[in-house]
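quick one, two chains, predict together pls
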Amino acid sequence: MSADATTPHDAAHGGGHTTHHYPYVKIWGVLLVLLALSVIGPMLGHPIVTLLTAFGIAFVKAFIVIKYFMHLTVEKKYIGFLLLVMIAFMLVFVGGVSPDVMKHEGQRWVNTAAQDVVTKGLAADKAAEGHEGKHE
Amino acid sequence: MSSFPRPIATTRSVTGISTGKLAVWWLIASEIVIFGGVLGSYLMHRIGHPEWASQAAHTNTVFGAVNTFVLLTSSLFAVMAHQAADQKDGKKAAKFLYLTTLGAVIFLIIKSVEWTGEIQHGFTITSHTFWSFYYTAAGIHGVHVIVGAIIMLVIANDARKGIDLQRVEAVGLYWHFVDIVWIFLFPLLYIAK
């Protein structure tokens, strides 16, 4: 068994891998700072800040991992296209069914079961809050 | 010398990158649809059901944040293993892969403690649709962590002997994807209260 397989691609780059390596520990440090921000941001209680720090930072963290740890930007271009096609499929699925799932009534239909669940759930939450308030 | 024939995908490349690495990219592409479907469904339901907020309030942000730290750190070790493999240092690559696997084990231990507490408090997979999504999404992710840890141990064992070092990068790609999935699960399940 040979020690290490060398592909024609590898061979074209001098017989070994030529992945450009970055200062990974520094990049990890940046990821940890972003993690801290994503936890602290929502504590402020502002919806926009929560959206930006929790979800916006998740996209930034994912981008950093894809670019610096997975080296996608220096990978063959068709790999990026392959992943984008899959993300597009996912968005088509979400876009296609979201009106039925996120809304509970439309022009010619009403999802009474979902409406009941929401109404009962919110009423139960309110009752639980009132119960807790009495005990305080 | 192994008695098994050497897989053709180990040494062949007709697409510009090694066939093994291409297979991992294909796997990741299919996983995007699997996790995208689960997370997209969760997000749509969460927006359509404001009453889920009272259930989501019971998830423990500290557990989620610590596990994010563990996975980000294990991803660092995975990419350092890749760097060592590029330098043809199999022993160093194996050492970093073992550390990555340790991250997977720590992640699973924390998850077990977290889930035990939640189940003991009555938050089971059948108690509410929020918890169904919670256990399904985190459970599928957990299975990926277990599978990744096993594969990393096999590859680390070979890398230690200097065998098939190109596989270190391939398993690293998979592990970074598992990390990315958790990066999105964390705000969805733990922060959006």
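Chain B has seven helices and no strands.
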